[in-house]
Structures
1.
Amino acid sequence: MSRNIKFIQGNEVCVEAALYAGLDFFAGYPITPSTEIAEHLAQRLPQIGGRFIQMEDEIASICAIIGASLTGHKVMTATSGPGFSLMQEALGYAVMTEIPCVIVNVQRGGPSTGLPTQVSQGDVMQARWGTHGDHAIVALTASTHQDVFDVTVDAFNIAETYRTPVILLFDEVVGHMRERVEIPEPGELELVQRLRTSVKGGVDYHPYLPREDGRLPMSDFGALHRYNVTGLYHDMWGFPTDNPKIVQGLLRHLIDKINNHVNQITRYKELYIEDADCVLISYGSAARSARHTVINRRARGEKLGLLELQSLWPFPEDLVREKCARAKHIVVVEMNMGQIARRVKMAVDTPDKVFLANRIDGSFISEPDIKQVLRIIRGKGV
Amino acid sequence: MSRNIKFIQGNEVCVEAALYAGLDFFAGYPITPSTEIAEHLAQRLPQIGGRFIQMEDEIASICAIIGASLTGHKVMTATSGPGFSLMQEALGYAVMTEIPCVIVNVQRGGPSTGLPTQVSQGDVMQARWGTHGDHAIVALTASTHQDVFDVTVDAFNIAETYRTPVILLFDEVVGHMRERVEIPEPGELELVQRLRTSVKGGVDYHPYLPREDGRLPMSDFGALHRYNVTGLYHDMWGFPTDNPKIVQGLLRHLIDKINNHVNQITRYKELYIEDADCVLISYGSAARSARHTVINRRARGEKLGLLELQSLWPFPEDLVREKCARAKHIVVVEMNMGQIARRVKMAVDTPDKVFLANRIDGSFISEPDIKQVLRIIRGKGV
Amino acid sequence: MSRNIKFIQGNEVCVEAALYAGLDFFAGYPITPSTEIAEHLAQRLPQIGGRFIQMEDEIASICAIIGASLTGHKVMTATSGPGFSLMQEALGYAVMTEIPCVIVNVQRGGPSTGLPTQVSQGDVMQARWGTHGDHAIVALTASTHQDVFDVTVDAFNIAETYRTPVILLFDEVVGHMRERVEIPEPGELELVQRLRTSVKGGVDYHPYLPREDGRLPMSDFGALHRYNVTGLYHDMWGFPTDNPKIVQGLLRHLIDKINNHVNQITRYKELYIEDADCVLISYGSAARSARHTVINRRARGEKLGLLELQSLWPFPEDLVREKCARAKHIVVVEMNMGQIARRVKMAVDTPDKVFLANRIDGSFISEPDIKQVLRIIRGKGV
Amino acid sequence: MSRNIKFIQGNEVCVEAALYAGLDFFAGYPITPSTEIAEHLAQRLPQIGGRFIQMEDEIASICAIIGASLTGHKVMTATSGPGFSLMQEALGYAVMTEIPCVIVNVQRGGPSTGLPTQVSQGDVMQARWGTHGDHAIVALTASTHQDVFDVTVDAFNIAETYRTPVILLFDEVVGHMRERVEIPEPGELELVQRLRTSVKGGVDYHPYLPREDGRLPMSDFGALHRYNVTGLYHDMWGFPTDNPKIVQGLLRHLIDKINNHVNQITRYKELYIEDADCVLISYGSAARSARHTVINRRARGEKLGLLELQSLWPFPEDLVREKCARAKHIVVVEMNMGQIARRVKMAVDTPDKVFLANRIDGSFISEPDIKQVLRIIRGKGV
């Protein structure tokens, strides 16, 4: 049986996976290092009867996909740091109105225009806290092209399941690197379709009344039912309210629907964790170097293990605590000032055993960088 | 001697303090609950020869003040959550280009348009992490009108001292409440003036070469020197570079100039901390209820103390650890899902003794809410 | 084989179990929410040749069963808070004279007439300390109808084994709720019969001389032997004495015969205790909500465990300490101001980790009440 | 100036103090060792126009004084253990209906009729928990006749201030011993008079609506206003309710009005506490031996101190913790199985350093008993 194997950039893998997951509407504004996503979709979407729109900026882009999603489409936009900052207001609107959408941030060096063509993982905390107000969010990442495919499909499934924006937090190395990827056959990966209401026209439809399982059936906007969609706190009809009980209930719903499903949302890979004295925790392209280090040092008898996080938010706190329970050292490998390292410190029982191996200069972190940190924390000096 | 005493809203106090500090340029777009700041400045600025511009939106507003600051003015804008989200990209630009400016966020309930007229403290983490990329930031807050005056003056001083945007994170209760405030006489509070370069025209001016003390003399843009200002990583002349050493040096400079001065930037008040079994940590309007609780429970013999934070970022980690060292319980009182509580957990030696007394329904947190949590953490139930 | 399955109220289960255990004399005065016990026994006892007497009040009721027990019958009375208060003097008499009897208190809201038809667990400490003077007591409870059956049989067995009043501390929810119960076949549960003296008539019988195993054989009053029964301190013949040595010996005997058999008397159930980070301790109907919470939160990955106490007095101190040894939090779930929570604090090594999840308003405590406390003690606020 | 000095029994001191405090109604039933209180009042009350009634039993006695108090009188009854057990139901009624009254329990050995003429302090826990349901209570005690006078006056003052039954927990030694006492002049001790409502007839009087300071003005029953008095949970008009909010509010009011004033209610004496390595805690007649021991051992250079509690309930937890903070050993001296010792363990930071020096045989505890315990806990053996 011939398999559909490609040797392509990560950005193109993301495109193929999005189409596989059912994407049929994309709006975006080009920005390095995410531009190839828009480029490829500009070609691919019309071929399958989908819509591609280049918008005037990133605010317009996210607003367009929110609207399209509400009318029943599976939607995505893609950008990098500066564009992602511009999207923060509308991202909050999608959170509040519970509209499924996928936002790709192929990270480059920040802040500001920063380092357009260099790698960074500096937007991890922004992905969590970039919009105002308490809220929960889902952010996925990947280190290999096969994983880029899988988490992209996952992103669409999670967006539909929980009616939430999902952020795909890739980085310049993953986006631009070419690597082998096998495109699954149709049906090979499970797809979650839009949950539509079964309420008939002319009957009371409560757009914001969750079912018992917490899911919220939608009605394509402009079709059978008329209803209100607002970024204000709203009741089960979608109409604004400042009733404290409803306000608290809605905020808790928005947070709990994500955070209470952390186990279902969490994706990770592990390597030699069981007997590891030292656990490396990493994600995205940095995890490639971490994995490399673990395999090489194991060959020399060092009890290293790897926990590769593929979902960063909601943070898999219990998983991290559990996997690190017997480690003497935990080293977080990432390309920022320790955004996930701080989160790991909060998760584990002994924050003092958490160390950071990082790079913040636009260069890709590599095995020697990590080995250097391992020496120092073992008291072996430079 | 007659004193200048007023009974005004917190938003108006902020205006008076900004003018006292030397504000002469304001650009903004009205949004509840910050609107009174713009309203009052629209009247007051022209009276003193300053400029007030109502812009078409919040992006334009922050861009206008950044530009005005670069030409030598003391500048401010004011907004609330949704507008603050829109400002995130340009805020990062001000961070990267090191342009002094003050951004007021009078917080209301979020996410999205949320609860325009109700109180919240939900934007604390966004203030820290709203823009993309690693960076440091200064955010101040206050619980009384006298403190609003003082921290507003401080905000301008810090912005000039460290060439950084400073966020004034007020909230709806502080902004709209009327309270007695005594306007200091001119000269009573120290003011930091713009540090201008002494480099003469026609001579090499290095706009991004810090002095030995870390401060960076400015030259009014459009005046004596021509130089480049960019959001890209840049060298001492302000020109773009991706040289890893310069990139790392600039990022560390941007972060260290703030975080290494945490002691100079930190503002706080304390009450009965010395012998407190239970330390309440609070800020903004929530601290009013915390203070009330401490005073009332002390009268009943309970050893409560209060640490009121007036600077949230950079987070005064050492201060919090020290003040909480002998406390059996630490209760963070805030109107969000525990944004500062999580930060306190990271600061103290025993995270398990940190609890959260919060409200997230748009209602002002009050003494009974705090007492309820105190009862439960003392094992006393309802 | 067909089983005897019923769908009845807890009060009726108590009746069936008492009859199963050999009850043949009941005296009582009706009071909500215990009345159904008297009602059903008024029908059932005559059917089996037993005696049912409705007395003029609760004092007469307990005095009648004490007398009947002394003549050789298995006896019970049933009441609620106010009636239980009235029984305190005679209860002490039964303690001092070591007369087996079972007293059911189907708790309602107190103090005073309180809340006749609402649930409470407010009489736990009264059960221990309601009568004057140092003494020990046995009090059992249950959360399901099958357990009501079992502990009721146990109560009769313990009363006979240790010659002591045994209190069945049920509550309104358990008493009035209908639930499936399977009545065991005769012989399925072990029954303890009255230990009668083998001393012949005309020979010296020492009614208050314990055997080597501490048990005290009885002689049906009015039958073979004449002897003295008094509430005063007494010697082995039952005659009053104030000899300090005998006084101290008798008081220690009364206490030790119960407290030294705490392991034999203790009944409990546990769920997921082994690896629980947080142990809920509960009893009576409250344990239903605690169990529900544990099961639901386990499904979400939270390491909750349940220790359900079915004997409250003598308090199973060692059991509680052992089961809670590795828990980070212990939450006592009960419907009072923390009567058992205080006792748990005394039992465990770290009283500070004991919290109270309670309701005191006559409403049944439910999962959301418990979850709220769990949130707060984990520092997560509302 | 001649002083009014007497050499009388403690029971008679109690009578004189009650009259001094304004007692004008007593109902009782004689029981050793409290009988002298009734005897003396039978003579003294008619002399001052008060009423003395001998009732048919203790239930009638407490009900009579509750009714008389409601009509505006200062009232008292006196009993010992068995009678106190009989009073438990009506005591709860007085708690619930907030009717000021004083109940004297001159303790003898229990349980049951126990040791009528011998000393004990076995009713301490019953005083706290004898009636059913959660509630708070005030119980005072004394070791010298001068203190008996003072705490008796206090009892009436507290009863009126907080509208609560107050228990005077004396013991056989204090009651029967003769000792010098100086009766204060009128006006020398402050007296609290009944707080009567100022609401006029025909106007809405809310008998159960506390003032802002928590006090509840009364209206003499049968006089100006008609209102309902019930042992059921009731609203501000005194009418029954099972509204959960009102139920919880009332229960918390009943408990908080006492427990929140623990500092005002607490009475104690101390001796050499400041530098004590070993603190004796005692109360009632046992404190006489404890004081004797401290004075004698201090003369030999042993750093003993005494904390004599004169109020047992609400338990002065903070006081005990504070006074014991620097002690290496804490020895509770009492004549029971450690009822207050257990409470002290809960109050202090290190329960392991709390020991019990007691007697339970009807004999008065003396210095040699205490010295023996001191030797053992210092590792010196018997």
2.
Amino acid sequence: MRDILVVGSVALDSVRTPFGEAEEALGGSASYFAFSAAHYAPVRIVAVVGEDFPPRHREQLAARGVDLSGLETAAGRTFRWRGEYRIELGHAHTLETQLNVFATFHPRLGTDHRRCPFVFLANIDPDLQLEVLDQMQGPHLTVSDTMNYWIARKPERVIEVLRRVQIALLNEEEARALSGETQLARAADRLIAMGARAVIVKKGEHGALFRSGDELFVTPAFPVEGLTDPTGAGDSFAGGFLGWLARCGRSDPGTRRQAMACGAAMASLAIEAFSPARLVTARPAEIEERVRALHRMAHFDLEPLFDRSHGGEARSAE
Amino acid sequence: MRDILVVGSVALDSVRTPFGEAEEALGGSASYFAFSAAHYAPVRIVAVVGEDFPPRHREQLAARGVDLSGLETAAGRTFRWRGEYRIELGHAHTLETQLNVFATFHPRLGTDHRRCPFVFLANIDPDLQLEVLDQMQGPHLTVSDTMNYWIARKPERVIEVLRRVQIALLNEEEARALSGETQLARAADRLIAMGARAVIVKKGEHGALFRSGDELFVTPAFPVEGLTDPTGAGDSFAGGFLGWLARCGRSDPGTRRQAMACGAAMASLAIEAFSPARLVTARPAEIEERVRALHRMAHFDLEPLFDRSHGGEARSAE
């Protein structure tokens, strides 16, 4: 049983970037995550949509094998987000957030949801994230995400989530805002001092870093040719990360390292199109090639530096 | 013969950071480079100082085995730079640049200088960098650096240098300014399209990337505990990079990769103190441990993703 539960938003996004725009496209943290993770392992979504949610989006998720038994339809309108990205892509400028049906949502988990060994608490109200944790039955791995929207409104609850999960995912801006530290390695250390067991800081074009009490690991970003829309990069990263761990059925340090590269590969696909379109069309060979490329980009064979057999005067040893 | 020639500035720096300040401390691109590279291989400096240059600085360089036969003393004052770093460390704010004796300097290379197989054209007037290239006798490897000061004043000459060397080093800001591209992977591609054979983009706390026509390699930054003064980080990186290549006597892709980690290790030492003080006191074991840590930070064992033996439905293959 290697199922992944994701609780997060399913949304209609309107996004403008220097390369085009999308109106009311399928979006939301749980959607991006599910399309990404479904390449690796079975995914179950718990979320809510309004009565206006287009059936074709539901069908597209189902076609990827995503379990939608936990996707409620509530009276009202679907969650909507409107944002734009300026020349310095990577930082979204939120123009409007309409919680709509999420304003009164409380996640209700069925038996199959509660028993999922891998859990991703995508970006939603931290109070809802805590409700999910309370309902889980001995999960193997819990990972959280958040957004500056919640860091600004409920910092204590965001910190409580971060203390209760095994790994907290944040982007640069969020890590700085929550920790009060500018330098990201220090920000990660500070978040661990605040009670996080492990953090992943997503750094956009600079990749991502994993920090726990005794480990530091970094993955580069896969360089995309046609950056189109950075929306969902973080959730797609999380999908690749948890997806690989779930596929392997373990989360030891070695597996986690390749999982970071799987995350980076999925994020690079997500940003090549508006909405999760590229995550849907990505072929396994294409994903595998990006993970291999990330491995090549970062690997070197370590030779001893100052040992005598290497030749040279070892000036430094004088 | 694995000697390294560096032509660049030897200066008196006055720097203020959030952690303290230094007045007229030993600085300059050639100084940082020399203290860094001297850990790995013999270094020869070609530069100029004024009559006011303190003898103790000259002695400190000589004590590290640096050949100073090409360090001229000219009538006038030593080159001076005054800068400060704000909270967002990494970007220097130049308050004052006094070229002084560098205003009329022309590098005069002796026979030993001309025959050096490894050449670093540190940040000086690109016209002087070209004069040095014209005097070299079949060097094995030429690497250049620059600064936005010259990109703003002599962009065509900076580009000419970049076309004539094997590897051009730039920091983030310089890569963006010279290429007109915001995203760094694209900026590197653009610089190659402009005629560079290979570029290294130094990204501060995000490490550095190497890009040539057929290769992309990244090294993370070594996370320092006590960041004090980022001045000289780039030149110290260059010192570790060329130092390791010179020590090995080759510059093939595999050796270059470890050279990037040696560069990152030296940069991390440089920024722990004002002036090149930490580069002087660094022990070989300490340098080696940082290179090993950088290797650990980036390495993972690649497992096939979607092959059947791994278990799982290979959903993605459907």
3.
Amino acid sequence: MSVAPVKFHPRQSVEQVEEGIDLAPKFDDRGLITVVTTDADTGELLMQGYMNAEALSLTINTGEAHYYSRSREVLWHKGATSGFVQTVRELLVDDDQDCVWLRVEVAGGASCHVGYRSCFYRRVPVGSAFEQQHTDGHIDLEWTDTEKVFDPQAVYGDVPNPTIL
Amino acid sequence: MSVAPVKFHPRQSVEQVEEGIDLAPKFDDRGLITVVTTDADTGELLMQGYMNAEALSLTINTGEAHYYSRSREVLWHKGATSGFVQTVRELLVDDDQDCVWLRVEVAGGASCHVGYRSCFYRRVPVGSAFEQQHTDGHIDLEWTDTEKVFDPQAVYGDVPNPTIL
């Protein structure tokens, strides 16, 4: 696949960044931009990750989601190991261009290394539900999805778990 | 409103964090956790922000979204200035508990300080659309929402713009 380079504009003014047509992303002091990835059909939040400039450029070029793995410190073509490639149907930037929203279709239907469809499979009781549940201020999470789409051991084998305590 | 303190669990093991019922959020070296806020009805991504421990605790207690403003360096009750309060219908955490997902209802229907309904009102052409548009590698953003819900000048007046170049 030929990969034409994407050129980002320098950030010159608030008006340019917020109300213009220039793509002028703000990478933080680690060189990263925040990424929010939702299911293009259901709107479900699948994962939240990061891109460096190379990952953003490759995503725009190829139409497949690329991230930067902070735990492994490498460019990360999502699905390269698991097969769960994310095809980008729409990519949007926010007002100050320090966040990217990917609306994707997921091959195989899974996005979470733990095995669930989404990384967000537990709910925190809020407001009156919190009042009803809490006794000493500690909270019990509520499961919203208990069925794993795949077996992480079978898919990832000995690949180290990315979660950092 | 009485505000009972929320107690977070210490992070002790990957299994506890990923597969347990303990709320054990990971705040980064700035004391912040990433927040993704979507419209509870439409699934639209409204904004991406941050919380410190106090903001997360207040959100859980009150059922209204509180953030930490990095530009203003203050606790931020969303809507305190604009009136666009976000009522949290559901709050979820991700696998490694370093991200919070808020599904909200927004009073007044606006979440973006620029005046749009969502902060994500511009699209980046991806894949074949990028190939068709780009000539020198620069990208023209495409507007997805051109109608402002409110007039930022009327709502915020002289409050400084939060966008940092």
4.
Amino acid sequence: MATIVPHQQPTPERFFNAINAYELTEAMKAAIEVELFTAIAEGNTAAATIAKRCDAAERGVRILCDFLTIHGFLTNEGTEYALAPDAALFLDRHSRAYLGTAMEFLLTRRVREGHARLAEAVRRGGTALGEGTLERENPDWVKFAEAMMPLMHGPSEIMAAELRKGGEAHKVLDIAASHVLEVAMKNAQAMGVVDRYPLLPGSAFETDFGGDYDLVLIPNFLHHFDPPTCTTFMRKVYAALKPGGRAAIAELVPNPDRVTPPTAAAFSMMMLATTPTGDAYTFAELESISKNAGFVRVELAPPEIGLDRLVIAYR
Amino acid sequence: MATIVPHQQPTPERFFNAINAYELTEAMKAAIEVELFTAIAEGNTAAATIAKRCDAAERGVRILCDFLTIHGFLTNEGTEYALAPDAALFLDRHSRAYLGTAMEFLLTRRVREGHARLAEAVRRGGTALGEGTLERENPDWVKFAEAMMPLMHGPSEIMAAELRKGGEAHKVLDIAASHVLEVAMKNAQAMGVVDRYPLLPGSAFETDFGGDYDLVLIPNFLHHFDPPTCTTFMRKVYAALKPGGRAAIAELVPNPDRVTPPTAAAFSMMMLATTPTGDAYTFAELESISKNAGFVRVELAPPEIGLDRLVIAYR
């Protein structure tokens, strides 16, 4: 999220730009669809040659490139465009860290509809869509799991390194949205660990976890639920851990002011629009949830795990 | 538009924030609908009391207020919220400069749809919606005229003062979208100038303007059309002016780089999404259009007219 520079004089500009903010969403979507970033990565730098590669109109490409330059995804020098570093790494289809596939999940019809009915969500204090994105048979989670794989590779390595500092974990439980197990199994096959990757299908609230775990991973799960539900869940995690075992919670964690850092803090809005009672929890809230579930000590680990922070709860 | 601060390390954060940019549009829309800014202006500063005034849930209001704080429309101190100066002036329903009514025009279904089909617009080099917002019987222009009146009061005074420096204008032609004449007449009645405010209904491209004008005002009109159409139109304006008369063009005018200032430059995208051939023109382009139409001298006047600049073409 860009830094806000306060205007000296009141101006309607901020209002207009906020009302028109959706144009950036649509511009990113269009650019990924026509493979604009990939075209530039391939060495096309003028609107005419980019347009040819994208099978698009020069005028359309010129206006889109200028717009993306304004928003920091491209740079320009005269009539030549180049990719900004973030765009080169994440938006070129040839890059290992390509994120374009995540777009489809991030902008599913239900997520957009939840926001289109945001006034209703504000009035009722939760999504206007019933169960929102938490409905049991939501196939979007499969798309999500597939799309997030390249993105999560780096952060999961940071997380593993951080957790290894607290000792090796021999028996690990990894909590996930139930529908992504097929994707998880494919990933396990690709990584050659399928013989030590048993699955426990079913709802994380109902399925028997077994016990004696050294470590339970809870990545981006708790934000979908209210604190009492999180506490109930964490009690179940506590019971499944060995004495001295750890629960590793990865979450977007806003500061106590709830407005910084901006991306983590803004995530509350996504939860309001798309879930009945979800939220972005502060460390104090995650600590309280964990302690109410029986954990004796709760820490905020130093490194950033992508956009997440890592909270470690000790049994 | 907020200033872009480049990240030191490549991060997917900018991508996520761009994909989710539409959340700010929806949040502004929801806040205006539930009268959140007005509630705060009336002295409600805690989520609970704001919620009561807005007939909304405290949790919904808290999340919305935090989100608007992140985006600079509110400030917070502990659990108390206050309006940022822009929000106090433009978003409190009791303010003379209230802009909330402009939202409806800015977010009409057709404008949103044009953006939802932006990849198509990029491919063809113009809106995917046929005539886009320029269709003849588009009632949105009436909404627009009504909504823009409070907003344009200040800028029109700046424009009048600037034009007065070049001498008094006794006979003035004001170009407008044809459907807004009824709104213009209501405004003229309210201002007590109806006896010297004759109307010329019909298309600005076809209606006989008459002649001997000292001044022709062309506010936010040319950006809807391509340069040849603008030139044809400016020839008609030229013919209607007295020798020594002036055409006053108010437009969002980007710099020659087409990416600064950001709001004016980004307006090209609105034209791509919603019109067949419209654009935000640089001063050099407006000068060229005017000179091709016969004008002898073209100036960029110093003051900002709201988000517009004033270009004066001399016959």
